[in-house]
Design goal:
Elements lengths: L7 H12 L4 H8 L3 H10 L14 H10 L10 H8 L1 E2 L1 H10 L5 E2 L11 E4 L2 E4 H14 L6 E2 L5
Parallel strand pairs: 1-5
Antiparallel strand pairs: 2-3, 3-4
Helix pairs in contact: 1-2, 2-3, 6-7
Length: 155
């Protein structure tokens, strides 16, 4: 199969389909092209605007992009899902909870270590971050509270 040139009519149709919410596969099927060719054409003809590549020296460009394209958080209609999302906290909120429970935590790992590899001293014991989460959730279970979920530790 040879290379098919994109006509102005093909580009117009691709734009209409894309803006109507069609998937890449559906657009390709409608135009009689492969999904790969259609995907590349959407970028080439600037139908789909690509996100700027992350460059640490251009932090202002990234923040400008984020301001123009805010992330919309999903809405959850079911109460059970909203309840689950409320239990997600940061690791530092977990440490604050333990501190409020009169548990003194001292970090003994070097700087710039991933959370899962960090070590903490609680009394005479050395614990990792997952073990601190287990300790906090044991306390919460004893108080008939829902367990905490912490990013990079839960699941």
């Amino acid at each position: 199969m040879g290379v098919q040139e994109w006509t102005a009519e093909d580009i117009k149709k691709a734009r209409e389909y894309f803006l109507s919410g069609f998937s890449i596969k559906d657009i390709a099927k409608q135009l009689g092209r492969s999904p790969t060719a259609t995907n590349k054409a959407l970028s080439r003809f600037r139908i789909r605007i690509e996100k700027p590549r992350r460059n640490p020296t251009q932090e202002s460009m990234r923040s400008k992009y984020q301001a123009e394209n805010p992330i919309i958080s999903p809405s959850f209609e079911r109460k059970e899902l909203r309840k689950e999302l409320e239990n997600w906290i940061s690791f530092w909120q977990l440490c604050e909870f333990l501190s409020n429970e009169n548990i003194c935590i001292y970090e003994v790992s070097p700087t710039y270590v991933d959370l899962k590899d960090r070590q903490f001293r609680v009394g005479t014991k050395l614990l990792n971050a997952a073990q601190l989460l287990l300790t906090a959730n044991k306390i919460r279970t004893e108080k008939n509270m829902n367990a905490f979920l912490v990013k990079d530790l839960s699941w």
